[in-house]
Amino acid sequence: RAIKAVTPAVVSIIINDYQSVIIFNQDGATTQKQKKQAGSGTGFIISADGYILTNKHVAKAGNPETAEYQIILNSGKKYYAQYIGVDPLKDLGVLKIFDKDLPFVELGDSDKLVQGMSVMAIGNALGKYQNSVTKGIVSALGRSIAASDNRGNVEALDNVIQTDAQINPGNSGGPLIDLSGKVVGVNVAIDESAQSISFAIPINDAKVVIKSIREQNRIVRPRIGIRYVMLTPELATAKNLPRPSGAWIIRAEDDPDSPAILADSPAAKGGLEEGDIIIEVNAMKIERSNTLFNVIQKYKPGNKIGLKIQRGDKIIVRTIVLDEFK
């Protein structure tokens, strides 16, 4: 029943774009631009007027200014879609087809997921088999991974769902659903070094994107302008820090020349410093189960937020005004 309710809204996405092709003739070789398939994936319709949620790396398989996005519904009906935008912080993208009374999915609550819960992944497996279904369980929550696309671009993703429901390359962008048929995640990646390990972005993270599209017709994310790591007791002990939890402002180990506080950012204007530990935002405690990223996403660019910060052995308070992540 759950599969039957969702599959009408799950779509195949085929992206065609101009690519350089070498043509040999009697005068020698010439290079021409020809439109060819640049990528494919899965998406799902989230509204009756045709908004489609997928992965960023699917939506950007071609150049959005020149690519054609063909959408194939489970019924076989075909549309050309408009590129709406991609999320600068998560592997999420949005396309739109223009029709009305389209089938769409029901969104669930990914915060209610627990380890061992049964889930199913639906997608266009390997780019060939439309609406293939795999079943598994939630293996873990809150994972951090590095996801790559077919062009070798790598993106760090935090707070993802780990599942043993098999996700093939063509399933990317498809829905992860619970047994009631509600979408709880967006399939995003597989661990090619291990069998039966796949990942999905929690649907609650995607709801910020959906709300932004509906209100502003583009994807808007608030920004604080820092580099940081979420503390664990083990890390705090190893670094001799004064508390076991919070968001520790520090430059990346693999890029020590990049500042921890970005120039002209809300954090810089608000007087934050490298080494500060953000322990609360508007009285909400910052910890591994309630990360700084997730808390900041509750606000909009232009909102004022109050930060409680540990700086050395002192607790200080700062107010900053969020701006927009570009």
Automatic annotation (TrEMBL):
Highest taxon listed in the record's lineage: Bacteria
Record keyword RNA-binding present: no
Gene Ontology MF annotations: serine-type endopeptidase activity
Keyword field: Hydrolase, Protease
Keyword presence, Protease: yes
Coiled coil (UniProt feature): none
InterPro entries tied to this protein: Chloro_Bact_Ser_Proteases (IPR051201), PDZ (IPR001478), PDZ_sf (IPR036034), Peptidase_S1_PA (IPR009003), Peptidase_S1C (IPR001940)
GO biological process terms, semicolon-separated: proteolysis
Gene3D superfamilies, per database record: 2.30.42.10, 2.40.10.120
Domain PDZ: 222-313
PANTHER family on file: PEPTIDASE S12, PROTEASE DO-LIKE 8, CHLOROPLASTIC
UniProt protein name: PDZ domain-containing protein
